[in-house]
Amino acid sequence: MKEGFIPFTHQKETHQTYYKVFGDLRNSTSTPIVVLHGGPGLSHDYQLPHADLASEACGSHPVIFYDQIGNARSTRLPHKPPPFWTIDLFLDELENLLRYFGIQNAFHLVGHSWGGMMGSEFVVRRHPPGLKRFVCANAPATIELWSRSFGELLKGFPSEIRDVISGNREDNPRAYFDALLKVYAVHGCRVQPFPEEFLMSVLYNNGLDADRTVADAGVMKGWSIVDRLHLVKVPTLVINGRDDIAQDWVIEPYVTRVPNARWIQFENSSHLPCFEEREGYMDAVAKFLTE
């Protein structure tokens, strides 16, 4: 494993993108994989199971993780106003990372949740010629579908949890965090106790001392990619879990509108089958990427 920082210049300011690489980028004959974490506002930590894809059993792919700007170990910018935080900012950062590693002509993308939304935007806005395959995991096709699904699933919880989650997080951050973990235990990650990597990412976004700059910037406000999904021309694997916040009808536009998209649902998972059904998930993703 190798880690470090990548200079990223935006609007005449240079920031630092933290990265972590598993596998040998220089000597591998397998196409490298870039993993896009969720949020916005999380970190790469909860996606670390994808390092399994660097193993010989999964195709020996070099796997690159990074913390998106404003998050975790990358440059924090708490003074930047909401208009600074745009989808194109994150796409520029991704392109900068691809150039830094010299893999822009041949790479795969695995995007989870917001990372899947961001990955689909990358495909339709930037048309990257080097992208070989795209895994869109547990991601909604519109933010309205995600919000409706979360609200629907929240009805299955006791009123004290519903009331806290539906209220203002700032009124009682501790109660909000505790209630959120109860929801996540059913629809976020059913592995108990929660994996350390998962908790680390949640703390970055929702802990008592969390930097909420990116999470509260409204990057996804009104977002939808439904009417542009026909522009996704690369082979695409769509994933969700049976108890996922990204319910079947939330991911359905990817399945029906992306040309020749494939869909796999993990029956014993919620939002993180990479943890909940790790072996089966990695086997499915590895097979898709090496076909």
Automatic annotation (TrEMBL):
Organism annotation: Polyporus arcularius HHB13444
GO BP terms in the entry: proteolysis
TM helices/strands, residue ranges: none
GO terms for MF: peptidase activity
AB hydrolase-1 domain boundaries: 32-277
A Pfam family matched in the record: Abhydrolase_1
Name this protein carries in UniProt: Proline-specific peptidase
Entry keyword RNA-binding: no
Stated family: Belongs to the peptidase S33 family.
PANTHER family registered for this protein in UniProt: AB HYDROLASE-1 DOMAIN-CONTAINING PROTEIN, HYDROLASE, ALPHA/BETA FOLD FAMILY PROTEIN
Superkingdom of origin: Eukaryota
Alphabetical keyword list: Hydrolase
